[in-house]
Design goal:
Layout lengths: L3 E10 L2 E11 L4 E5 L6 H9 L6 E6 L2 E2 L10 E4 L11 H11 L4 H15 L14 H13 L5 E5 L7 H18 L3 E5 L2 H7 L2 E6 L2 E6 L1 H6 L4 H6 L6 E7 L4 E4 L2 E4 L9 E7 L5 E2 L7 E10 L3 E8 L2 E8 L9 E5 L6 E3 L19
Parallel strand pairs: 3-8, 3-9, 6-7, 7-8
Antiparallel strand pairs: 1-2, 1-4, 4-5, 9-10, 11-12, 11-14, 12-13, 14-20, 15-19, 16-17, 16-19, 17-18
Bound molecules: adenosine-5'-triphosphate and magnesium ion.
Magnesium ion binds next to helix 1.
């Protein structure tokens, strides 16, 4: 398996930079997920790694070798797409073995290798079928098999699960994770699905308008989002973001909002965007509440409920075990612990570093 390096990769379409100066190192054996909203440049970046798209600038290295201008078929990479792109007239066995025939391996070698891959993917009983006789999940496994059979340096996958229904997505997701673990394969995986990213990635790269917003382990990007963009992209519902001001009293203030940050008094005043995740808000009696609002809607998610509230002019979501005991029209008091509050610069959107003061200082 191989490591991949992107050095200042850029791709312009006319005046628009779909991918803008991306520097990334994908370690050998890593499962790197490119995550971001539609149009942020995920596929463009992956296609440049694959060699399907010429960069406007920058370089791609595979195990230290510059492959920027190497044609795709000579890169030691296998790509799996959203559309399975199987040959309809060929059997499953011949579809999986196709890359090996193109390389001129003997029939016996091909049969052995296809057999191995089919066993790995649970396709052994389906080898004589045509693609039209398979379910969507089985077809996607054949497409995976065709990538696996080549034993490539790394796998590139562009939304490979997005044509599958919810149940199949979940099982196929687990299969890919298990394959990655067993093969210790290097994978670059594109998705706009945060659940896939959180569950599959060793590291997540959040892309916004062609640029890298943040790179980190799933827990890092969720627990310490580097920007308002990342905070607002991850989580269901996403992090609540509220215009507020940090005052000299060491608390954050806003409309119907006053939450102690655990800061010493005398901190410089400044405007902030306050972030707090829906699962970190708890209801509390109004007279003790840090946020006071009105419930506008309650959604039942099965095991949990989400209450949508209005605090001043800010929409604030609260998530917790069902039943929350709230109904539309209720006045509600909320609070959150200082360690669950995030502060961002309202102009740049970047995270502000702050530490609650040590609780033991006022002896
Ligand atoms: N061939 C092309 N010609 C012109 N513009 C393009 C072309 N391919 C992509 N773009 C533009 O580049 C930007 C990034 O596209 P890209 O396909 O990489 O997005 P994506 O993150 O994969 O989105 P999605 O999640 O919808 O697949 C978009 O604004 C898109 O319109
Ligand atoms: Mg795409």
């Amino acid at each position: 398996m191989s490591g991949i390096r992107m050095e200042g990769l850029t791709r312009r379409f006319g005046s628009v930079a779909a991918v803008d100066d991306v520097w990334l190192d994908v370690a050998d054996g890593e499962f790197l997920v490119l995550l971001g909203p539609s149009g942020c440049g995920k596929s463009t970046l992956l296609r440049m790694i694959a060699g399907l798209l010429e960069p406007s600038g920058g370089r791609v290295l595979l195990d230290g070798a510059d492959i920027t201008h190497v044609p795709p078929q000579r890169r030691d990479l296998a790509m799996v797409f959203q559309s399975y792109a199987l040959y309809p007239h060929l059997s499953v066995a011949r579809n999986i073995g196709f890359p090996l025939r193109a390389r001129g391996l003997s029939k016996a070698e091909i049969r052995a290798r296809v057999g191995e891959v089919a066993t790995m993917l649970g396709l052994t009983d389906l080898l004589d079928r045509r693609p039209r006789e398979l379910s969507g999940g089985q077809r996607q496994r054949v497409a995976l098999g065709r990538a696996l059979v080549r034993d490539p340096g790394a796998f590139l996958m562009d939304e490979p699960l997005s044509n599958l229904d919810a149940a199949l997505r979940t099982t196929t997701r687990a299969e890919i994770v298990e394959l990655h673990r067993r093969l210790a394969a290097t994978v670059v995986y594109v998705t706009h699905d945060q659940v896939e990213a959180m569950t599959m990635a060793t590291r997540i790269v959040l892309l916004n308008e062609g640029r890298v917003e943040q790179v980190g382990a799933p827990a890092e990007v969720y627990d310490e989002p580097a920007s308002v963009f990342v905070a607002g992209f991850l989580g269901s519902p996403a992090m609540n973001l509220i215009d507020a001001v940090v005052r000299a009293d060491g608390a954050v203030h806003g409309c119907d909002l006053e939450l102690p940050l655990g800061l010493d008094a005398g901190v410089p005043e400044r405007p902030v965007t306050l972030g707090v995740r829906p699962e970190h808000l708890v209801t509390t009696p109004l007279e003790r509440a840090g946020l006071r609002g009105v419930v506008t809607a309650v959604e039942n998610l099965g095991g949990e409920e989400v209450a949508h509230c209005l605090v001043g002019a800010a929409r604030v979501g609260l998530r917790g075990p069902r039943p929350l005991g709230l109904r539309p029209g209720d006045r509600v008091g909320l609070t959150a612990a200082p360690e669950h509050l995030h502060l961002f610069d309202p102009d740049s959107g970047r995270r502000l570093a702050w530490q609650p003061a040590a609780a033991s200082t006022n002896a």
